[in-house]
Amino acid sequence: MPIFPRCARRALALCLALFAAAGAAHAEWPERPIKLIVPYVAGSGPDVVLRPIADALGRELGQPVIVDNRGGAGGIVGTQQLAAAAPDGYTIGFGNLVTLAINKSMYSKLSYDPQRSLAPISLAISNALVLIARNDFPASNVQELVEYARKHPGKVSVGSLGVGSSAHLAGEMLKSETGTVMLHVPYKSGQQAVGDIAGGQLDVMIDNVAGVLPFIRSGQVKVLGATSLARVPVLPDVPTVDESAVRGFEVVSWGGIVAPAGTPRPVIDRLNAAVAKALRDPAVLKLNETLSVDATPSTPEQFASLIASEIPRWGAMVRRSGASAD
Question: Where is the signal peptide (predicted)?
Answer without folding.
Answer: 1-27
